[in-house]
């Protein structure tokens, strides 16, 4: 992931950080940040008719890979700006970048995401260029690389288990992308492992009522955290401390 | 709980409903509504120096009873207004009322809450009149009744279990009041029981790492839902369908 982009962003939204988004250290939680990134992605897509309109036509966007790097988390009551832009198409991935800044313009966080366009009936990936505005998502080979593929560990320590509840379901009746990030965050904080970067690969959807078992292996600066339901790998991720 | 109050409200805040607050039916989740009510309570308290300032002086507000009645939940992208006011003191309870309206002024939800002021060291309740602005919270016997006491069922069916995770902790390192409401909502929706009113009594704090076992008994229109950790009763609640 590039540190920051030179190309202009295409859409932005401003948020006040609210009390329920804050952790005991007084800072925005990772899952709450991911909620806001997702809100901005949706609003951008809807503003140019490649969001809910596509869903109504039988397509859905599935988040496949997501890298989020945080320099500083905002506190309760702070105002932040989240910018986003399409960053071209890479094979079947549509790329979307985010940048989070505080009220003085300081960059708090950056993120890159890779999305697949699925036919809801067949579950087959479709070419994103079919539906995306070409002025927002260049169809030339993109200047931007998608987040990297992360291997699923063969072995690992067994951590805890998270149950998939009704509140994990989003408006399309799928487990929210952010739930997986909340599980990672909850698991890492329970281990006393604080971090600056999450890189997650979404592998298979978690389903309502399932128990997601966490596997992990840790070195000093980096933890490999993956989740599975029975024999099905659900996600895998690198969680890293930087500069430290 | 009165349907709506005749006395003026004292504080208000406006919110846009965001994608991550919505359930698969397209409406605001109960837990997300409770998040917003709590935000407004905190901001009101902080605006008059009976919020975080008191915490720094060794006191804390503990939500003891909370009744929320919903007429209609807003949808994604809607703007809502939440008003709140102190509604006097009843013995050791400080009462706070809420009213939620949409952009045309239609009342979407009403709520009444009863709060105890605890000395953080001794855990003993203090008289709220010691710290509350008397022009906001009348010390005369209040015109308003606190939410009712709910008995803890002796017996009940055992429902599911919820684990208390790090993301349940609020900025004061206590399990967020809203987590209990999320557990109730998750449990009821899993049972296929939709509802218009929640009345909850908070009994003992849930602690990080605990498993909260749900007990319930159901008749057609009303479900008694309580939570316990081992032998400790954590909450008890009535969840009701109205007009139906």
Automatic annotation (TrEMBL), chains A, B:
Q: Which GO terms describe its molecular function?
A: acyl carrier activity; fatty acyl-[ACP] hydrolase activity
CDD domains named in the record? 4HBT
Family matches, as InterPro entries: Acyl-ACP_TE_C, Acyl-ACP_thioesterase_NHD, FATA/B, HotDog_dom_sf
Query: Where's the Acyl-ACP thioesterase N-terminal hotdog domain?
Result: 10-127
- Every copy of the Acyl-ACP thioesterase-like C-terminal domain together lies at 157-220
Keyword list, A-Z: Fatty acid biosynthesis, Fatty acid metabolism, Hydrolase, Lipid biosynthesis, Lipid metabolism, Transit peptide
Report the domain of life of the source organism: Bacteria
Q: Which Pfam families match?
A: Acyl-ACP_TE, Acyl-ACP_TE_C
Give the record's family classification.
Belongs to the acyl-ACP thioesterase family.
Q: What is this protein called?
A: Acyl-ACP thioesterase
Q: What is the lineage of its organism?
A: Bacteria, Pseudomonadati, Bacteroidota, Cytophagia, Cytophagales
